[in-house]
Amino acid sequence: MKVILDCDPGVDDALAIMFLIAEKVKLEAITTVAGNHEVDKTSYNALRILDVLGEDRVPVYRGSKGPLTRSLVTAEHIHGSDGLGDSNLPPPKRKVEKEDASEFLARFVDENTDKVHLIATGPLTNIAKAFRYRPWIVKKIESFTIMGGCFFLTPFGYGNVTKLSEFNFFTDPEATYYVFKSGTKPNVVGLDITQDPGVAITDQIFGILEGVAKRIVEKPFRKLGIFHLHDPIAVASFIYPDIFKFKLFNVSISLYDGDERGMCIVDRRGIYSPNANIAYKVNRREFLLKFLKAISKV
Prior knowledge:
single chain; alpha/beta; Inosine-uridine Nucleoside N-ribohydrolase, Chain A; 12 helices
């Protein structure tokens, strides 16, 4: 199984990396994008987390400095000035690879005889560029998991940037629009699941955390009083799909400005052919047990 993680570390991205490594998912590479922080910082953070985990075999490719057409919006107010909760982890011993992330993605998927599994937990800029470079690679993707969007399918499916929009899709709606139109039919885990307080870090769960996980989560948790595990939940849907329920929908992405920027427009009537498989339920207990058990290993 060949797996690539495209991400923007970010506290929850870092936890997602830890989750994947602990569950012995063999990562072929990590590609980074601007989102939670500028791309130089997200790349630096990916290397820092891999170093802490002793995973020096996983290459990191630095990607897009900003959205396809818009100015970059970051989330330092959540993830801290260093992007990892101001945890002051040691600097990385390695550097990023020379090849651009989107070019690497396009080439790697195209040249491999085995189909590739993609997981994207940041804005979809790198993925959209890769699909534009070599459009035919969409047929070589075995599975594609996206963390992003809110689809108004549960009481928790409301925006976290505007009242209608989720951060990753809001950051680069044009890239998101392109990816949803690409024919990949991704599995999408959005705020409908990840903002459920039953799968978040609360006081009780925070008390169980230890080591690096607790170190990077502490500042945003203390600030917010809760920490939503957006990216680890998306990763869990890849590792343990049986604890999730999905439903096929046709989803359009709003390219307007204001509250509607990056909004997901869901065809609930089934008029249009589905283009995405949207998560609408997760076994809360099973997720937390699996996540906490995995994180305790690292």
